């Protein structure tokens, strides 16, 4: 199998001036695949039943841990995670957790609910499975840019 560089050289010859556009598309896809696979998500849920955990697995995302919000407030998980996904959690609880974690980036999934949240600079909102997938990727990308990598 040819390396990425060899592939790019062959493509450059074939496509002449249009190769750079295709390279950008391929690089964007590589970044998305990396974010999906490497972003460790902590799922906090107050829903009795939810399909969210199954969606994350189906999408190939890394679920670091899942915990109900009440237990997280008293005994937070010791697992390392990159972002929190709030699944059908009340605004007051989301705000309390975000207040206690100033460097944390989050996604709040709330179908059929309009949340009034503080900390708008660190949280993304989703109201359907489609927007949930997109908001997780956007938040992971934003986090990657905001937090220096080792």
TrEMBL record:
This is Nucleotidyltransferase-Associated Rossmannoid Fold domain-containing protein. Residues 41-143 form the Nucleotidyltransferase-Associated Rossmannoid Fold domain. It holds the Pfam family NARF. It comes from Acanthopleuribacter pedis. InterPro entries: NARF. It comes from the Bacteria.
